[in-house]
Description:
The protein is an all-alpha fold. It has helices at residues 5-15, 28-38, 43-56, 60-64, 68-75, 82-97, 106-110, 117-126, 137-148, 158-166, 171-187, 205-208, 227-240, 247-253, 258-270, and strands at 274-276, 282-284.
Amino acid sequence: MSIDAQALLGWFDDTARALPWREPEATAWHILMSEIMLQQTPVVRVEPIWREWVTRWPVPSAMAASSQAEVLRAWGKLGYPRRALRLHECARVLAAEHGDVVPADVDVLLSLPGIGAYTARAVACFAYGQRVPVVDTNVRRVVARAVHGREPGNPSSRDLAETEALLPAPVPRAARFSAALMELGALVCTARNPDCARCPLPHCAWVAAGKPAADVVRKVQKYEGTDRQARGRLLDVLRDASGPVERIRLDLAWTRDPGQRARALDSLLVDGLIEQTDDGLFALAGEGSPTG
């Protein structure tokens, strides 16, 4: 079974969101930044920060010339700030070893810091129009439902091969098909309350099978009261500070559980997001003199 490319692409042509990283003037570097930002973060939160970054760091060397702390501050509250550090490291490699240009080859992209299987293929496809499968949670959901008649299971090595088999043969058409497949999962074939009445596909195996429920009920991750929230509060203090701060400033930022606060602080140090100065103060990465 396949997915009707003509129906999907017609729908995409008529309804695709006007996202700035889809504009012709968006470079591969701009698209790479958007892909890193969009991981586990909604478009509405990413777009304004992405626009600021494109203006501030239009090429990798511009970001490479900035400090880790500057990049972390600019990341703001997008969440999962290690992504910002990995992107900064990637920018340094691109500037030093790739002539300030994001490469088009998937294997070369995979060799860059912080670039995984999804991001490498997304850049190759969306920035360079290559015929490569791009599989995120939205794509996996659409393929699982429309083709296999079930809810998606756990990620598998089969996902790439199955998605590649669905791509139209013409390269430009395949790249647009990948974008359309992702858009369908993001806007219509959503995880909760899919809007099947709006779906452009003339046949869906999942609908035909009576929309069977998933075999495994996935737990929704909470945020309130978690170590992740504690880490965010501590980072907020350091992002808002003009330099290193005393430990008491961090203690006051998370008072509900001292043990959790200490755990969050240790993890930030281990992840390289913050550092401790020789005199015991705390600062964003690159803003203090690490203890040796």
